[in-house]
Every structure is written in structure tokens, then in C-alpha cells.
Amino acid sequence: MDVAAPPKSGAATAIAAGVLALLGGLWFLTGIFWWSLVYGFGGQDLLVPGQITDAVIGLLLLLGGVSLLARVEAGRVLCLAAAVLGLVAPIVGLALRHQHILFIVGGPTGIDPDVPRAIVTAVPFVALLVLAALPATRRWTRL
Q1: How confident is the model at residue 41 (pLDDT cuts 50, 70, 90)?
Q2: Tell me, what's the pLDDT at 141?
Q3: Interatomic CA distance for residues 120 and 118, integer angstroms
Q4: DSSP state at residue 116
Q5: Are 68 and 132 in contact (CB under 8 A)?
């Protein structure tokens, strides 16, 4: 009698990617209100581009995470696109702040200097990119 192991479904990678996407989305959506509290509501008009970016990336991450956990292929694609935006936005923010333009994205981290904050916040989005791009995650959404 030949007993074959069940095929790997990729549930662990897909669930991890979905949870990371949900947490990242909540973190970006928290950033909409967080920086208004930190800088005060008087300077809120300067924060609007960063808040719009936070809203777009946060909603994409939440939609992608929920869709991925629901085993929808489009959720994996949304997670990939949102993770790339989540990586690019802090870099753009760094470049613009060095040009004396206030562009802050993301929620609270407890890290003040710009470069270490960008590096620390990039780690979960790199992990999300890797997890969502793995063939196991693709197989899991196609089952």
C-alpha cells in the first residue's frame, strides 16, 4: 500500500501574508490620525498628501489581506502591489523631507530619526512581498 503525503497547500504562507497585510493596513490607517495629533491640527493642511497616501495604501492592504484570507487570487496581487507602495512611500517621504516638504506616511513606531524608521518599517513589507510572491501562496488561492 502506497501512502503519499498530502500536497502542500501553502496555507501557512498565505495566512501569514494575509495577517501581515491586515496589520500593515491598520498601521497605515492609524497614520492618518496619528500625525495630526503629533503635529497639531493647525498644521493639518501640510499633512494631507501623506494622509491620502496612508488611506490608499491602508485600504489596499486591508482589501488585499481580507481577499487573500478568503482565498481570492486578486487578494494576492493586491497584497503585492500594496507592499510595493508600502516600501516606496517612506522612501519618497525621506526624499521629500530632505527637500523641506512635509510628507509623512505610516503610523506610530516610536522611532524618531528618519532613516532608521524607514528601515524598520520596510521589514514587514519585504516579508509580505516574499510571502505573497511564493508559489505556495499562489497554489493556496487557486484551490
Answers
A1: low
A2: 87
A3: 6
A4: H
A5: yes
Q: What is the pLDDT of residue 3?
A: 55
Q: What is the CA 70 to chain-centroid distance, rounded?
A: 18
Question: Would you state the cell numbers that stand for residue 71, as one nine-digit string?
Answer: 482565498
Q: What is the pLDDT of residue 72?
A: 92
Contact status, residue 118 vs residue 88, Cβ threshold 8 Å: no
User: For helices 11-39 and 114-133, what crossing angle results, to 10°?
Assistant: 150
Instruction: Yes or no: say if 58 and 35 are a contact pair by the CB < 8 Å rule.
Output: no
Q: Is the pLDDT of residue 57 over 90?
A: yes
Nearest to 83 by CA among 16, 13, 10, 25: 25
pLDDT number for residue 43: 58
Interhelix angle 135-142/11-39, rounded to 10 degrees, is 100
Distance of CA 34 to the CA centre of its chain: 17
